Fold these 2 entries.
Entry 1:
Amino acid sequence: MMPFIVLIVVTAASRLLGFSGVAYLDGWSASLAVGLAAMFLLTASAHFQQPRRDGLISIVPPQVPRPALLVTVTGVLELLGAVGLLIPPTMIPGIRVAAAICLGALLLVMFPANVRAATARRHPAAPTTPLGLRSALQVAFLAGTVVVAVAA
């Protein structure tokens, strides 16, 4: 739930800054990109900090080889995507769109681990959000990446 709260609060704060004259945040899409970046920075941090890292490793579906490596790679991808969302479109055209699309794809690819986390508790530090709420949050995060990709 904390990632969703970060997304909402940072997006709203960014939009307020945009209203107050910060040109970089002049628009909902840019503010949403900043909110998503903050959210992905938060979620990426769990991939590297104990005990949360072990909890994430425990929810990787068993047929996936090298779950620890996968958790590291997905954490790095979340960090790179977050940085990509923050790069102004005028600096590197298309980077924000590419970052949003890649993060959306990453959300889809990681969804089976989220289902496993909600349905089979594997580790005390594994995420515990019920499947219905977890699914709704994933849809909201995915919708955010789509809005940023389309509106950027």
Entry 2:
Amino acid sequence: MNALVQPMLFCILLAAGLSLCLYLFLTVKAEVRGLARGRLAEAPKIEALEGAFQETRLAVQRIEGELRDVEAQTGMLVSPAQAKSGLNLSKRTEVLRLHRAGKDAPCIAASLSLPRAEVELLIKVHRIALDQI
């Protein structure tokens, strides 16, 4: 009897294992199919977000261009008005002090309310004078 029960038990366990594998395979396949449907349903949302992102990127680029134009116009408008008064000695000293501290020309011009071109010119003249020494 023992010789008959062992092969039957082996076949039953094998059938149960194969059934469990088949069940797992079918449930995983159904889950993958459901995820694919969900991804297809989300595709229009993703496309709408990408479109909004592109519109935002274009708006930022447009605003950057307008900002450059305004900066250029402001530098041109401010320069003649301050050129009449000239650059006094204390402003010149302050520009050179800030330049030695590592500040760049636009930052110096903004902090001292001077045209950027005038600050850059002063820094260039100072460098030339140092090179000649």
